[in-house]
Amino acid sequence: MTALDARPDSPTALRFPQGFRWGTATAAYQIEGAAAEDGRTPSVWDTFSRTPGKVRNGDTGDIAADHYHRLDEDIALMRRLGVTDYRFSIAWPRVVPTGSGPVNSKGLDFYRRLVDGLLEAGIRPVATLYHWDLPQELETESAGSPAGGGWARRETAYRFAEYAGVMAEALGDRVATWTTLNEPWCAAFLGYGNGVHAPGRTDALASLRAAHHLNLAHGLAARVLRGALPASAEVSLTLNLHAVRALSASAEDRDAARRIDAVGNRIFLDPVFHGRLPEDLVRDTAGITDWSFVEDGDLATTSAPIDSLGINYYSPSVVAAGSSESPSPWAGAEQHVRFEPAPGPRTAMDWPVDADGLYELLVRLRDELPGVPLVVTENGAAYDDYADPSGNVKDPERVAYLHAHLAAVHRALADGADVRGYFLWSLLDNFEWAYGYSKRFGIVHVDFATQRRTLKDSARWYADVIARGGLEGLDG
């Protein structure tokens, strides 16, 4: 069965605008490997993955998809797919091993080779400065203080801005789009709230401090980038906004949805786009903090202008009045909200498949942030796919997922959302954080024993989408 045989039915032909950016995305710790080579030092994820019981099967990113050594092969795969853009992240500890101070020239050289290779292949580089691999030394610094180290410490935001300046100087003439942070919600609340991500802390106050310092880091870095980059370069931020639905129309359930929207979405949207903290979030979290760690001038810094907003979306959340298990990532909401299973089919992550949630987010942002271009910077699904005896990887469920979500993006475009591009997550099967190598999101299958790459049916299908400029001709 070919990819075209696997495609889902579609009642209409859906073309995307001329110049729409068709991309794919990865993250450094998930694919690069070479964890101790050429001057790279440990990140919080190296430490976390070596902590017994934190990552499934004791997996680490030491080798991952070995992208560090297979750079040319992976760029050739992207060229074969026909992607116009590639979104990658830079490993901070590969470039500035201690988080601050001396720059590692060998680390910079790797990203120079990557960017030059992409440009040679006609692919537009989209760089993310932070996809969760904080240098361990910054986490360890001041770890014994009441606030602790890492993102709970204000100083980390300033070190991040310095690192942004290093990268702008090294690659500013060749990288088209610079994203400061990827999913700061996960870094703050999964890393410092319920501890399922690195650095594994369980401290509600630390998670709120981390969220603010990530916002501050974004603003500081945006200013540095703006001052160092050519006028044509774009500065961006990527958020994993939550499509939150109340279980019922009751006042209690609607208040549960409001609470999650405050600590899941507006904790970033309001400081970044409006220069303010959400008043209801401050009330909700009054039992945890008085927010005195927000200093004069911070919110003017967090709201430095950006050129686009990236949206990562996988599935919606359904909430009701109740309470969540402790420790919870939902600071200020854990005693008031419980999560309910959403209806519909589910991925291998046990996440519900519901493309309407992506449409809802895009039209919400159309209304709330007029004039801000949007990019879907991650969207995809994990399934238990495998190479069959003939070497083929058939993944019709992923094709159906992607088709539905691209149709939702098209619907949002038709309804006036200024969506400039779509980045499929992910190019390669990889190290899936706390799940290790047990979950596969790639459209390219990776045999982790041999590092052999195999295009899945979804990769061929996506190549057809790109070649046709949309879903036209791929229906039924």
UniProtKB/TrEMBL annotation:
Entry's EC annotation: 3.2.1.21
InterPro entries: GH, GH_1_N_CS, Glyco_hydro_1, Glyco_hydro_1_AS, Glyco_hydro_1_beta-glucosidase
Superkingdom: Bacteria
Keywords assigned: Carbohydrate metabolism, Cellulose degradation, Glycosidase, Hydrolase, Polysaccharide degradation
Pfam families: Glyco_hydro_1
Segments for region (Disordered): 42-61
Annotated Gene3D superfamilies: Glycosidases
Gene Ontology molecular functions: beta-glucosidase activity
Reactions catalysed: Hydrolysis of terminal, non-reducing beta-D-glucosyl residues with release of beta-D-glucose
Keyword Hydrolase on entry: yes
Active site residues of this protein: 378 (nucleophile)
Family the UniProt entry places it in: Belongs to the glycosyl hydrolase 1 family.
Protein name: Beta-glucosidase
Gene source species: Streptomyces narbonensis
